[in-house]
Amino acid sequence: MAMKLVIGTKSGKCYQKELSTQEAEALYGKALGETINGELIGISGVELELRGGSDIDGFPMRKDVHGQNRKKVLLTKGVGFSGKLRGKRFGGLRVKKMVCGNTVHNKIHQVNVKVVKGEQAIEAAFAPAPAEEAKEE
Question: What CATH number does the domain located at 3-63+103-136 have?
Fold first, then answer.
């Protein structure tokens, strides 16, 4: 199964890239918070920081859960805490939820990254081709 990479820029735009198996294997073993060189995923001149993601069943990666396995953790807020349970009415609520560890492995389906250096290279890499612009008009 192919891994998807969601690249967020400082301007607020997000770009998606589907990684080949070779590019995805370059990310295996990296933990959330680490910075990677863009050449690992085929975009030169960029430095990216791993920020989050989810596995093949939709469980979110959480930075404070170490390793590759899924774990049930007791949450009061943050990643993995259900949006329905937030609010003033449920103050002090704690819920046990299943989350995925902070290390990228072969069962991770989506990885979210943010651009640390080289935002112009990202814009250029994902710019539409001139033929596509003509079709849109």
Answer: 3.10.20
